């Protein structure tokens, strides 16, 4: 049986840990060739090693800072030289600042926007240019967040950046009209990864892990692989008629009400 991603050349950013790593592994299991990108070289090596155990030679690692124009351009070029083109670009890398907005500095705010929003824009820009030239369509995908749909817990710039990602994807989908290049994003709920470790450490200290996990109707946290499965769907041809959408993968958090139960 051919895999669901057979023959597809993909880029995944933020691939050194969490959701990005889980996605690289799911893509490879389904027959994709992947350039895994991150600023964290140690984690990236581990991802490549893990993927090689599934399919040798299907993944290469590439240092890439998504906030840097040249670095992103090189990343997309690498995919084309290594795997003969690009079919999927998953702009997943992201960072967070948690705190009260009056404590946040302009430097932190700008950095969050630079990585979370400009990073997605750059990935899509350079991936689109190649995909359009190839003329075989493609899938542009980003990781937004439930924090971009409703208020985040304590993260002004992060929530604002993720709301921006959601609308950025809609505009990209529209501007890609007629190219067979689709653009969508995923809005994860609370997933245990490197990014949320400080949150989990705090809830553990307070002994409220179960209580916090139960803020959604599914009554638990999500796993990185549950986001990766959604990414797999949106990246693959199974989602050929899904375009310009935000898919919440959050156990129902985005549509829940505190007094529903
Ligand atoms: P993570 O910290 O495990 O992974 C994020 C990765 O992005 C890291 O490997 C990090 O090195 C990389 N990265 C950071 N800055 C970068 C840069 N400038 N260039 C390239 N790579 C960079 O966290 P995660 O939870 O797997 O996060 C993946 C995405 O999911 C992020 O966009 C995040 O905002 C989003 N998200 C996460 C959750 C959650 O609960 N974990 C919820 C909603 C959305």
Automatic annotation (TrEMBL):
Keywords: Oxidoreductase. Pfam families: adh_short_C2 (PF13561). GO terms for molecular function: oxidoreductase activity. It comes from the Eukaryota. Gene3D superfamilies: NAD(P)-binding Rossmann-like Domain. PROSITE patterns: ADH_SHORT. The keyword Oxidoreductase applies. CDD domains: SDR_c. Belongs to the short-chain dehydrogenases/reductases (SDR) family. This is Short-chain dehydrogenase reductase 2a. It comes from Hondaea fermentalgiana.
């Amino acid at each position: 049986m051919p895999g669901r991603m057979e023959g597809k050349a993909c880029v995944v950013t933020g691939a050194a840990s969490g959701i990005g790593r889980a996605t690289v592994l799911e893509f490879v299991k389904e027959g994709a060739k992947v350039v895994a990108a991150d600023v964290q070289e140690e984690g990236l090596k581990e991802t490549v090693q893990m993927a090689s155990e599934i399919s040798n030679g299907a993944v290469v690692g590439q240092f890439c800072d998504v906030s840097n124009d040249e670095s992103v351009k090189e990343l997309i070029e690498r995919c084309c030289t290594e795997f003969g083109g690009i079919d999927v670009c998953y702009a997943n890398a992201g960072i967070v600042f948690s705190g009260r907005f009056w404590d946040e500095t302009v430097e932190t705010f700008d950095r969050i926007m630079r990585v979370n929003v400009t990073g997605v824009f750059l990935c899509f820009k350079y991936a689109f240019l190649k995909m359009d030239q190839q003329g075989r369509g493609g899938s542009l995908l980003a990781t937004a967040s439930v924090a971009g749909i409703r208020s985040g817990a304590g993260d002004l710039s992060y929530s604002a950046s993720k709301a921006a990602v959601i609308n950025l994807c809609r505009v990209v989908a529209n501007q890609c009209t007629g190219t067979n290049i689709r653009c969508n994003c995923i809005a994860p709920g609370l997933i245990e990864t490197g990014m949320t470790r400080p949150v989990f450490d705090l809830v553990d200290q307070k002994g409220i892990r179960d209580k916090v996990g139960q803020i959604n109707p599914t009554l638990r946290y999500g796993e990185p692989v549950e986001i990766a499965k959604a990414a797999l769907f949106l990246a693959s041809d199974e989602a050929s008629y899904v375009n310009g959408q935000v898919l919440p993968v959050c156990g129902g958090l985005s549509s829940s009400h505190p007094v529903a139960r």
